[in-house]
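Please, structure for the following, as tokens.
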Amino acid sequence: MHRGRYAGGVETPLTIYNTATRREEQFRVAVPGRARGYVCGLTPQDHPHVGHARVYVVFDVFRRLLEYLGIGTTLVINFTDIDDKIIDRARKEYGDRVVAKWYDVPRRYIEEYFEVMDALNVKRADHYPRVTEYVDKMVKWIEDLVERGYAYVAPDGSVYFDVFRVPRYGELSGQRVEELIAGARVEPEPGKRNPLDFALWKSWAPLEPWWNSPWCPGRPGWHLECVVMSSTLLGVPFDFHGGGQDLMFPHHENEVAIARVYFGVDYFARYWMHVGYLTIGGEKMSKSLGNIVTVREVLGRYMGEEVRLALLSAHYRKPLDFSTELLDAQRPIVDALYSAYDQLVQALNDARDNGIDRDAEMAKALDNYVEAFEEALLDDLKAHVAVGKLYEYARHLIASVIPAAERLSKAVLARALEDLLAMADVLGLVMYRDLPREVVDFVSGMVEYRSTLRRERRFDVADTLRALLERFGVRLFDYGPITRWSLDRRTARWMA
């Protein structure tokens, strides 16, 4: 097993698809024992939707896998907290007060982001830089790029990056400059030399927030922001840079262009990872189609684990069509995980090491499941396959391990529980394991009373008690004279 056996150095047992090279590569870290990564964050101008959630869940699993292997991580996720869309939203909400009130918009949606990511059990990043915190540093970068001839100042004071000064522009996204120019829209930006050039600094317009610069009042351009924040917090080159597939061009391409001339490196991140599109009914989510599904909306109807599993149900680089049917299909997996967990805890608590005749056989079977789970994740983060292996493991526990618990040692049962929790944790599942002590004591008492009724052959009363417990979300499993139970976290009124 690989868990916890990373021995240091730069080599890891993980292979990952690198967009920059168009092939799967062994993942190597620049600093032994630590992976440093940056994931492009939200522009917080509306409710986070399930497309956003897919990106952050995928990279949460990637980070958890590295930590499972014994590799420390430093993860940065930014907030683009000043942007045209944010200003437009603020104008609609605050009218002439937009300059004084505009920041209420990103503040509100940043708070919601943390709320829904917590509900999805996405671990907090190490840093959440905001563009507004880095404006002075961005101005200094722009000054340097202008001085070195990689950027130019337009008549209105805006500053543009000169794409033609960049070696191999278009390499990351696999596009040719000539084709990009032929297909480019003519932007209504006076002073822009060619349609592919992009703004490093945008001049001020009435009823907009602004910052001072040597050229004019204004604000930074989008593509510059991530380069400055990531390199400041992680150094160059750092290990991985990620985001949705829609960011590959122009955003990530333009980030690479800036870093290529500023630092003199081909790629300022060593591995580039992109998460596939999420669609609804086969169409990309958009306001115009009215098919945007917010994370908060989905969490109002489904458990966080079910939503996570749905978002992991296709390989991260492939498209994923999101639906209620997809969410409903995750219920048996969640039920099996909780059932295996609850029953295994009870079996372990009752274990007395009074029989170990099947230990070696059972331990080997458990190891096979764990190894298959690990290999799926180590092969370009095939989380959808790993989920299937974890589901098989849980069903094996329910069908073979728990019924045989009386003939197994406490060590084997403890190992089974440890591996269940470790694998679930890599996928960010089983978020609410612990039950209130009074609930456990009460249910255990009812189960023991029912066992007494069965021993006394009062089966009608025992069946009535079983039906009553099931109404409250308690499921009973009889193994001869022994009864185990599991609590349905969805319907159990005990949890309210």
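The CA atoms of residues 138 and 228 lie 7 Å apart. The first strand starts at residue 11 and ends at 18.
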